[in-house]
Amino acid sequence: MEYPPLDELSQSLFNTIPDPFFVVGEDGTYLEAFGGTERSLYDDGQLLKGKNIYEFMPSDFADFFIQQVKYTLSIGVLNTFDYKLETDEVQIPKKEGPGGTQWFEARMYPLNKLYKGQRAVTVMLINITERRNLQKKLRELSYLDPLTGLYNRRHFLERVRMHLMEKGKVHILICDIDHFKTINDTYGHLAGDAVLKEFANRAKGLLKHTPAIARFGGDEFVIALTDLSDEAALAIAQTLRKTVAETPFPYQDRLLTVHVSIGISQVYEDLEETELIADADRALYQAKEAGRNQVCLFSSPSREV
């Protein structure tokens, strides 16, 4: 037994839906096409009626979609999934939609009778690109420092633990802007913000391939380095210190002299947050005690810095 064809009234009602609605046969033929009238979100799906998915979609995507059709028919219940589509690769005569990379949510449901001689599913597509972009933005805001654009403390610690699992050891650098309070008191907090942003830019420029750079709070920054010897980590820290010290920081019509003290340690295992940077913090203290604008390496608990 088969479904009877839709009457004119039903077709008219379906065609008022802003999101596209299809009946797709088991062989990938688009047996019916309705709705999808919102051109800011979709191309005209009516052009797909009577075509097989392999006629207008890249073969790898068509394979994926047919697998979903067969899976939906096998489970006999609603199948919901998301997918990314490069709409420029879709071969249709007329393109009026947003173009580019789009994300869709598909809601696929099996028909319990044959439709035009074959097993089929109904599919409603919803363009979720804006939703995914918003979710991505919110995720970025959750782990980025808003002033410098660097990772924040929480995300940095997650990255360090990940790299410890992968590499077994990580060098931690703690960088502290020398006399930062004096900069704020002398030139104002906007000057302090400018110094923090400029330091972040210089660190990112120097350490382009570094797994993680973060603002840890206030005027303190942390950097994770992997696959390096103590000597190589020390050399990188010295280069960063010189990059800060040798070129004044611009602020309005002034050039500010800025220095940074850096403490380095090597971490071999996943530790509690307070212990993860403890040795680097001790090395930073030694750098401050030595007169600031210094780099100190903490080799191990049994050796002096």
How do you describe this structure in short?
The chain has 305 residues and is of the alpha+beta class. It folds into 2 domains: 8-135, PAS domain (Beta-Lactamase); 145-298, Reverse transcriptase/Diguanylate cyclase domain (Alpha-Beta Plaits), CATH 3.30.70.270.
Key structural traits:
305 residues; alpha+beta; Beta-Lactamase; Alpha-Beta Plaits; five-stranded antiparallel β-sheet; five-stranded mixed β-sheet; elongated; disordered C terminus
Mean pLDDT level: 88
Q: Widest sheet: strand order?
A: 2-1-5-4-3
**What is the alpha-carbon Rg in Å?**
29 Å
- β-strand percent reads 15-25%
Distance between the termini: 84 Å
CATH T-level fold name of the largest domain: Alpha-Beta Plaits
Poorly predicted runs: 301-305
Q: Quick one: CATH class of the largest domain?
A: Alpha Beta
Largest sheet report? 5 strands, antiparallel
Helical residue percent band: 25-40%
Query: What's the total number of strands?
Result: 12
Structural class: alpha+beta
Compute the number of structural domains.
Answer: 2
Sequence of secondary-structure elements: HEEHHEEEHHEHHEEHEEEHHE
- Name given to the CATH homologous superfamily of the largest domain: Reverse transcriptase/Diguanylate cyclase domain
Count of alpha/pi helices: 10
CATH second-level architecture of the largest domain: 2-Layer Sandwich
Structural shape: elongated
